[in-house]
Structure formats: C-alpha cells, structure tokens
Design goal:
This protein has about 140 residues and is mainly α. The chain is built from 9 helices and no strands. The chain folds into 2 domains: about 50 residues; about 80 residues, Homeodomain-like (Arc Repressor Mutant, subunit A, Orthogonal Bundle). Helix 1 packs parallel to helix 4. The protein starts with 5 loop residues before the first helix and ends with a helix.
Length: about 140
C-alpha cells in the first residue's frame, strides 16, 4: 500500500474519528458530527468504522464512557447520577442500561462491589484489567 492508497487514507480518517472519540467522549458526539469532521457521510463512516474496528462509532463511544464511569464509580466519591453526566451521558436510564449490558450489573451495584476490587492495582493496569466485556465477548470467552 502506498500513501496514495484510498484504503489507507480511509483508515487514517477512521483513526482520527476514533482518537476524537477517545479525547472528547464527554462531549455530545453523534455519528453525523464525527462524519462531518472527516468529510464522510454518516452512513459510510458507520459502515467503515464497524469494518475496521468491529463496532459502530456509537458503540465505541459508549464503551469509552462506561470505562471512564467504572473508574469514577470505583473511586466512590460521586453518585451514579454525577458519574453519568460527568462521562457525557444525558440520560440516566440509557447510561444505566448500557452500563448493565457491558458490565453485567447496574452502576450502583458496581459502585458497591468495585470499591474494594481495584485496591492495590495501579491505575495504569486497572483500565486493562477492569475493562467492560460485551455480552458477545463474554459468551465467546465461556465457550473456549
């Protein structure tokens, strides 16, 4: 592949979108805004992002938000509602539903259980060790 290869150029744009989500997960991001930022249509961005990274831009954004929420909930100094808004979610119900899907328990249950789980684990490792697992990933792991 050369620098002029359209597939490579598209992967560069997709990486920019993923990096933007990583940086701006607290902001009100939607697929249309992300697509405008790299001069692609929303539909094309969604299809290409899923093909490249295995999930939609929205799913990737919500995973980043839930990962950050898990860290804040482990600290224990914020309520679930405060955490919800801190990570960029605007609906407590949507946040709680998505959190439960990814983590396997409600945010309030996680807050109670996880307070002691992360003790002694350096922050640099906690993200990798305590990363949320999607239901389909969990099913694949148990099938092995």
């Amino acid at each position: 592949m050369t620098a002029q290869d359209p597939r490579l150029q598209e992967l560069v744009l997709l990486r920019k979108v993923r990096d933007r989500i990583d940086r701006e997960y607290r902001e009100p991001l939607d697929v249309a805004a992300l697509a405008r930022g790299v001069h692609l249509s929303a539909g094309h961005l969604s299809r290409a992002f899923r093909a490249a990274f295995g999930e939609s831009p929205y799913s990737y954004l919500m995973t980043r938000r839930i990962e950050r929420a898990m860290t804040l909930l482990r600290r224990g100094d914020m309520t679930v509602t405060e955490v919800c808004f801190e990570v960029g979610c605007t609906s407590l119900g949507t946040f709680s539903t998505r959190f439960s899907e990814l983590v396997g328990m409600s945010p309030s249950q996680y807050r109670k259980v996880a307070a002691a789980d992360g003790q002694g684990i350096p922050n640099c490792l906690a993200k990798a060790v305590m990363r949320p697992i999607r239901n389909k990933e969990a099913s694949a792991r148990t099938a092995d």
